[in-house]
Amino acid sequence: MVQKNFWTKIGGACCIVVACITALVKLVLKYVVGTYSNVEYPSEAQQKIYKTIADIPGPRSLPVFGTRWIYWKFCLYKLNAVHLAYEDMFNRYGDIIREEALWNIPVISVKNRDFIERVLRQSGKYPIRPPNEVTANYRKSRPDRYTNTGLVNEQGEVWAMLRNKLTPELTSPRTIRRFLPEVNQLADDFNNLISLARDGNNVVKEFEAYCNRMGLESTCTLILGRRFGFLDGEISETATRLADSVTSQFRASQEAFYGLPLWKLIPTKAYKDFVASEDALYNIVSEIVDSALIDEQQSCTDVRSVFVSILQTSELDNRDKKAAIIDYIAAGIKTLGNTLVFLLYLVAKHPEVQEKIYNEISRLAPAGTSVTAEHLHKATYLRACITEAHRLKPTAPCIARVLESEIEYDNYRLPPGSVVLLHTGLACLDENNFKDATSYRPERWLDELTKKSPFLVAPFGCGKRMCPGKRFVDLELQIVLAKMVKQFEIDFEGQLKTEFEFLLTPVDSNFILRDRIC
Ligand code: HEM
Predict the structure, then answer these.
(1) Residue ranges of the binding site
(2) Fewest CB within 10 angstroms: 1, 109, 217, 463, which?
(3) What CATH number corresponds to the domain at position 176?
């Protein structure tokens, strides 16, 4: 018993001695190493400064399902109002939010200007935009039609190869210059269509449908090099099918992305709808391409260059050429239609702005003349009105990226591979970034002091993955706005309603178009 006590005491003493020696060695090492190497060892408090993705605030997350429950029926937000959900979440949680997709994969949303700029500036050779998983999944299941998931959804070297081969003709200023007379004609036909669509009170109901037809006709004309009659009084069955399938494609993508992604396990209704719309789109575009191919052999006009350049691209499978045309048409219709409605709505709500556009364009291009490149170059106020509409109501209000390297923000460390949504649209409404941010004031863009803000006012995205349709859309918006303001006094009663269908989309828009008395 005495012996046991003795050994216990010896053991205790040894422990105390070892602890003291360890502390002493630590102290000496810290002092010596600190003195001679100049390396600063962070204190425990300093080490804790960095927080991880898991610390970012956001809605409560469920195992496996993550935070997608917030869009379920009777829960916090509506699936067709995702834009309002983000507004509310930024108010609740601050400038950085964590959501979780299926299997608890984090998705980080940010609206801080500095963060947005750093992410967009860091992009390397192959910037990664998270693919639309529904489209990618479907296309992989149809090797008979697709060799890859397409320009919009591919990554890395395959994306770079598609981008290099498919976009130069579309983005070339020469193509856009050559297309100018055609856009003048398209704008005249659009004016004619909406003029005839007015009721006795000069109201055009569901104006967005006409703008989508304009998006469809002009994108098809640019890409396929011929007119399709989507602006004729009677809309053809093909136009209706094409417009419907693009709408249901966006809607189904939205449900499959933000809703419960059960489609990964079983073919849900949303997935089946998506497949049906993708099939319809494929069949319609195939018909159009085939008929355009026959015409192509009989004609040799210049406007066909985008189509011809795609068809003549060497080392590209025919399936890729058809897929590219589908992607261009699908990418162009609703984006262009929505943007046109938002622009005209803002102009309608600001008669003083409208008057200034009218005066500028009447001075530059008198009645009866076409709008030329020189007119547009001089129409600085008209262009400012378009930039300001992109700032205030962009149809694509956020840019998605996968981080290529680590980023630190507000004491959080986000590792490479993190999925981030950059909410440029909401950042544009922040008073810290723009004075009088929620007002439509085109004049701000005429002020030399206003920063151009290419990372905030970025309706077409940014960097190497930027929208290849930008130049064409710029041209079209300018000519359509100029010609509409010349012909009509545009008015709108009440507030424009919007929904989110993967894009910010106008609904039930009734415009009043009074003939201008010159
Ligand atoms: C107002 C009309 C349009 C808007 C607002 C718009 C917006 C955008 C945005 C935000 C992106 C993503 C860019 C990024 O991640 O940095 C994009 C990509 C794309 N857009 Fe557009 N777009 C429009 C019209 C068009 C048109 C007319 C076409 C084709 C003729 C087109 C074809 C594409 C393609 C192919 C991509 C994918 C590019 C890539 O990943 O390399 N877009 N667009």
Answers:
(1) 467
(2) 1
(3) 1.10.630.10
